[in-house]
Specification:
- The chain has 213 residues and is α+β, with helices and mostly antiparallel strands.
- The protein has two domains: 92 residues, Ribosomal Protein L25, Chain P; 80 residues, Ribosomal protein L25, C-terminal domain (RNA Polymerase Alpha Subunit, Chain A, domain 2), CATH 2.170.120.20.
- The protein is built from four helices and 14 strands.
- It has a seven-stranded mixed beta sheet. Strands 11-8-10-13 form a four-stranded mixed beta sheet, with no helix packed on it.
- β5 and β6 form a beta hairpin.
- The radius of gyration is 30 Å and the shape is flat.
Length: 213
C-alpha cells in the first residue's frame, strides 16, 4: 500500500513557520544525496496520520513538488507540552539505493516462563537495519513463545528478517531475556527496649522531685 502526502513549497521561512501551525499547517524540509533542500508546508492532520501509520521506517510518496519523491520521515520536532509535531525533516531516497533506518520491534507470543511468574526484560525496542526502500518493513516481530525458563535469551541472530533486510546490530546482541522477579524483603523491625524507657522515665521523675525541693 502506497502511503502518500501532499506538500506545498514554502517561499518564506523563519518567523512565518510559527504562524503556519495556527492554520493547521506544519513547516517541513526535504533533502537528500541528490535532492536540494526545499522548505515545505504540510497539512498537520495528514502528517500526524502518516506518522502514526508509517512511522519513521516506511517509505512515503511526497507529491505536490512536480515529480513525486520517495521520502522517509527523518526527524520530527514536537511541542514539549502538547507533543504536537511542529516541524519535520524528510529524507529523499535515491531510487535503488540502500538506506539505514531504525525499525521498531514488536513483541508477540506468550512466554511460558512469564506465565509461570518470571519477568521479561526487553533490551531492545528498535533495530538498526539496511535495505532498499522497497524492502523496508514497518516493524520486526520478536516471538517470545520460545522463552521457556529463567535465563533464556533472544539474540539478534534469532530474529527473522524480511528478504533484502540486513541487521546493522551485532548478531550476539541480546534482544530480550527472562529473569526472576526480585521480591524486596521488608527490613525487620527492632523490638522496643521497654527497660530503657522505664529507666528514662524514672530519671525524669527524680529530676522533677529535686527541683521541687
Amino acid at each position: 500500500m502506497t502511503i502518500s502526502l501532499t506538500a506545498t513549497k514554502r517561499e518564506e521561512t523563519g518567523k512565518d513557520a510559527k504562524g503556519l501551525l495556527s492554520t493547521g499547517t506544519m513547516p517541513a524540509v526535504v533533502y537528500g544525496p541528490k535532492q536540494e533542500s526545499i522548505a515545505l508546508s504540510l497539512p498537520l492532520r495528514d502528517f500526524e496520520k502518516v506518522l502514526r501509520d508509517a512511522g519513521e521506517s516506511s517509505v512515503i510518496e511526497l507529491s505536490g513538488l512536480g515529480a513525486p519523491l520517495q521520502v522517509l520521515i527523518h526527524e520530527v520536532d514536537r511541542d514539549p507540552v502538547t507533543h504536537v509535531p511542529r516541524h519535520a525533516d524528510l529524507y529523499a531516497i535515491e531510487k535503488g539505493a540502500k538506506v539505514e533506518v531504525a525499525v521498531p520491534l514488536t513483541y508477540v507470543g506468550e512466554s511460558p516462563a512469564v506465565r509461570a511468574g518470571a519477568s521479561l526484560v526487553k533490551v531492545l525496542h528498535e533495530l538498526e537495519i539496511e535495505a532498499e526502500a522497497a524492502n523496508l518493513p514497518h516493524d520486526i516481530e520478536v516471538d517470545i513463545s520460545g522463552l521457556l525458563e529463567v535465563g533464556a535469551q533472544i539474540h539478534v541472530s534469532d530474529l527473522k528478517l524480511p528478504t533484502g533486510v540486513v541487521s546493522q546490530v551485532d548478531a550476539d546482541q541480546v534482544v530480550a531475556l527472562i529473569q526472576e522477579v526480585e521480591i524486596e524483603e521488608e527490613a525487620p523491625v527492632a523490638p522496643v527496649d521497654m527497660s530503657a524507657i522505664e529507666v528514662e522515665e524514672k530519671g525524669k521523675k527524680e529530676e522533677e522531685g529535686e527541683v521541687k525541693e
